[in-house]
Write the structure tokens for this entry.
Amino acid sequence: RATQKAFGATLQMLRTEVNAGQSLHSAFQKHPQVFNQHYCSLLYAGESAGILDTILDRLADTLEAQAALKAKLQNALIYPASILTIAVLVLVVILLWVVPVFEDVFKSMGATLPWATQQLINLSIWLGHWSGALAGAFCVFLALLRWAHQKSLKFQVNFEKMLFAMPIVGLLLQTAMVVKWSQTLSALLQAGVPLAEALSPASAASVSPNLAQATLELTQHIQEGHSLSKAMSKSNLFSAMTIQMCAIGEETGSLDAMLQRAAKLMESDVNQQIGNLSTLLEPLIMLLLGALIGGILLALYLPIFNLGQVF
């Protein structure tokens, strides 16, 4: 209810600003916490071309498709991230509180400890000594990372390149960005916005600094007389299938339809890869956790086993 009241107040402010003579996209830009750059760019394109109603209709369809894709990506990544986070916390608890109890027992035995057990105890002692400093350093690192990401465009570009270079997940994220770009560009072209004017809102929709830079280069190439597909081939962000379908669309005069078709094919591929990723990660995570927990338990009970063999 509080969110509804806040949104209602925002709409009332928008109404007042538009009645005062401001354009709709200018009024939207004053509320970035509600309407991001994607909204504002599309509204500006619609107002400039005199097709605001058509743009809003296309915007609703595009945002719905993008929200569904985003939810699937989040569901695919949240599960393994949550499991790994819980596993790390469990391991820290074992090292800080369980291992010291066994260490006291081993000291009372007075026997020589196996190498694995001694290394586990050393790790427990080291972690207990430096845990506070490590936690503080980790928090500072996250704060600096967030600050750098907000302040530096170069850092955003390099950080995203690092994400794109990750195995499996990187390709998923990159494809999802291109899907957003293609869906928005297709919607704008279907609404009658010229290609050169539609590229900027499409880059804003992707929320990708690398794709935004690539789109600027695409705009320059198009202004120089090159085709969109030829300009796209100079970037490594677009797949061969997407470039080929754009080329077909340009040759047949149906670029908007081919972009939409390419977006659907990429979205279908992303959905399939998400399913494969979920199927693959579950046994891998279980295997990793089993190896870690099993290794710790084995190291803790080795001295007891050795003592039993002596007697």
